Amino acid sequence: MRQRHVIIVGAGIGGLMAALMLAGRGLRATVLERAATPGGKMRQMFDDAAAIDAGPTVFTLKKIFQEAFASIDLDFDACAPSTRANVLARHAWDGAQRFDLFADIDRSTEAVGEFAGAAEAEGFARFCADSQRVWRSLERSFVRAPAPSFLGMLKGAGLRGLPDLLAVSPFQTLWSQLDTYFKDPRLRQLFGRYSTYCGSSPYLAPATLMLVAHVEQDGVWMIEGGMHRLAQVIAEQACSKGAEFRYGAQVEGISRVHGQSVVTLAGGETIEADAIIFNGDSSALAQGLLGPAVKAGTPSVSQNQRSLSAITWTLSTQTKGFPLVRHNVFFSSNYKAEFDAIANGRMVDDPTVYVCAQDRGDEYVARDAPERLLALINAPAIGDARELNSEEIAACTTKAMARLAQCGLHMKQAPSPPQTTNPNGFNKLFPGTGGALYGRASHGWRASFQRPGVRTKMPGLYLAGGSVHPGPGVPMAALSGWAAANCAIADLTSR
């Protein structure tokens, strides 16, 4: 029998997983990536030759990767060694208010009690139990399903799982649900931040996103060599199974001709295949950026439906004052105002700042040498609407640094200025998004069912990545790539 050929457009985590699964099952897989390296949003930037992860920094749900690798006789832990974090994140509101959240629930419950009182500790214990129930209800019935379906979710949850789901008021917002567990505004702010993991506002996102708490407690891992190394590992293993990678390959069109899927590259080269998996933002298809044949049937996302964008800074510098660990969050003084500004397309006056100190682990250790940092604030996805000028970016930098200084973190002036990426830059890196980093925002309980599934209306075309079901984040995008590969295999072998 002729070896089936599948082209994967894009080497983000979804495309990488699809290539690995296809090649591991004996199909011919060709990955076309316009960048020079794999990873997509899981990218690196360099400061004085130091490689700094400039995309996702939190790795969870390792079991998904272990299962995927094992299905094609590979050992994920041997390929990508990692260490489990004991401290999930260190949080600060000013120079005096600090709180560590731990992977161990009992330790975190004790810490909550010391930080905010016994009633809040009891609320945290209920919150953790309910987060686990939500994840248990949705993992098989929704998260691992190849397409979003409300009826399918209800059917999959079954009579036992449905009460667990309904117990947390899934039709309520995350913010309103948090009020049933916590009266301390700092804790509502802390756990409301989980909605930003999928680029959404806690004031509009559904309460089911509290499942992120359980996902983190199930394990946050530090990949040896950083997150970009994970992309390299999957690409290497895909190649070992026979996949081909072509970097610097700009795809300009996707079509279907005489029963064959066709990709057109910049310069006019065309490549035929039995199927195509598109690992880019689905908005690029909906906007016709890859031709009219794939525009029809792809749901479009309006500007006000987009998820968050960001402004990021990568730099190597010495720090003092605040006792940094790997993951650190410095909260704004007015969380509601922060998301109101973004909803109105404005930069934030007093932003919450996330800092990943990539040379650190769970314990603070004083350093007298430069360290690699990624700092990030949320921003509106307006990268295709207007160009942010240098004065606006400088103002955002000043405000972010002021928030860090107010919490006690000070940075020496680095030899070279930090490298900044803003919504305009993200829109150029990921066309069709406006700079949105997570596809459609998860606003309202219906939003999760409005993401496209991995199958499309065009025969032989499948989708993968954070803009499609089951959503954004490294493990979710990986699941979409795995699902796309499985669907392609099933369809090709049924012909």
Write the layout of secondary structure elements.
Layout: E1 5-9, H1 13-24, E2 28-33, E3 44-47, E4 50-53, E5 59-60, H2 62-70, H3 76-79, E6 82-84, E7 87-92, E8 98-102, H4 105-116, H5 118-143, H6 150-166, H7 174-178, H8 185-192, H9 211-217, E9 220-223, H10 227-240, E10 244-247, E11 251-257, E12 260-265, E13 270-273, E14 275-278, H11 282-286, E15 309-317, E16 319-321, E17 327-330, H12 335-343, E18 353-357, E19 371-379, H13 390-406, E20 409-411, E21 419-421, H14 423-429, E22 461-463, H15 474-493
Parallel strand pairs: 1-2, 1-14, 2-10, 7-17, 14-22
Antiparallel strand pairs: 3-4, 5-9, 6-9, 7-8, 11-12, 12-13, 15-19, 15-21, 16-20, 17-18, 18-19
Précis, in short:
The chain has 495 residues and is α+β, with helices and mostly antiparallel strands. Helices cover 35% and strands 21% of the residues.
Task: Describe the 3D structure.
The chain is an alpha+beta fold and 495 residues long. Among the domains are: 5-82 and 224-302 and 440-493, FAD/NAD(P)-binding domain; 124-213, no CATH class. 35% of the residues lie in helices and 21% in strands. The protein is globular and about 65 Å long. The two termini are 12 Å apart.
